[in-house]
């Protein structure tokens, strides 16, 4: 209440945030801290010139959000908080270190459907793309922004299609830049999957995007979630175009079919991976030429193996 009544006094806001931060270790204080997110973001928005206050506010938000995720509490932040966060992103668009923290906050927030919807409403997508372009080398910013992009795109509507259309090149650039970083590649694959679901690709995009996804699978074979999401993204591409299916068969770095077999054998006890692979194969056999090639590469044998491994699925 004191912070609200003195919202324009920087010292009050700074002391208030420090005092609230002293309760973080006290588990019984958590429900009360949850109710303070609005006043913390408002303080940050009002006093954007004070970097110390920004950092302390952001650190406190991260603590509160981390506890919320640990306890399975979804923080459905309202539109005013989403608007504050966007304002802070824009005000500090050059400060890489602070943006790394702030993007982590956005990623945690976007786990809630309501909060993701509010971030979309205030128009955060172009800012996310701008951050990805500007900080392509920064793995923290890249995986956080790709995670937010995935949350927004996967539940997006037709109104988002125009703005999401410009997301494909930058998301592919992130994946290309961080192919060997499993965490970033995983989120980039998820974002590409969501963009494919939203119909954000054109005819010239299918082949290079499929090739890039195959590269991600090759470079990170041990990451089950990446393999699953990569296969789901490929399935979405194949559903849209035979070009993507042919790109998988004729990839210059080796047969995509052999890669699929290898990935299954590596993750044969992961139902999510098997399901994604089956979905991909189901899309591929819609094309006669592709199906003949799959038959010649003995895909029926792999399907029989999967059926034996998961008889009740």
What can you see in these coordinates?
Keywords: ATP-binding, Kinase, Nucleotide-binding, Serine/threonine-protein kinase, Transferase. Its EC number is 2.7.11.1. This protein has 313 residues and is an all-alpha fold. It has a domain at 201-312. It has 20 helices and no strands. The protein has helices at residues 2-5, 10-21, 30-34, 37-46, 51-70, 79-91, 96-109, 113-121, 125-134, 139-154, 161-165, 167-177, 182-197, 206-219, 224-240, 242-249, 256-266, 271-284, 288-296, 299-309. α4 (37-46) runs parallel beside α6 and α5 runs parallel beside α7 (96-109). The chain is elongated, with a radius of gyration of 22 Å. The model has no long low-confidence stretch (mean pLDDT 91).
Q: Number of DSSP helices? A: 20
H/E order of the elements?
A: HHHHHHHHHHHHHHHHHHHH
Describe the main β-sheet briefly. Answer: none
How far apart are the first and last residues' alpha carbons, in Å?
Answer: 54 Å
What is the strand tally?
0
What structural class results from the helix and strand content?
Answer: mainly alpha
Task: State the helicity in percent bands.
Answer: over 70%
Radius of gyration over all CA atoms, rounded: 22 Å
Overall residue-averaged pLDDT value = 91
**Percentage of β-strand residues:** under 5%
Shape: elongated
Note poorly predicted spans.
none
GO molecular function, one term: protein serine/threonine kinase activity
Catalytic activity: L-threonyl-[protein] + ATP = O-phospho-L-threonyl-[protein] + ADP + H(+); L-seryl-[protein] + ATP = O-phospho-L-seryl-[protein] + ADP + H(+)
Keywords: ATP-binding, Kinase, Nucleotide-binding, Serine/threonine-protein kinase, Transferase
EC number: 2.7.11.1
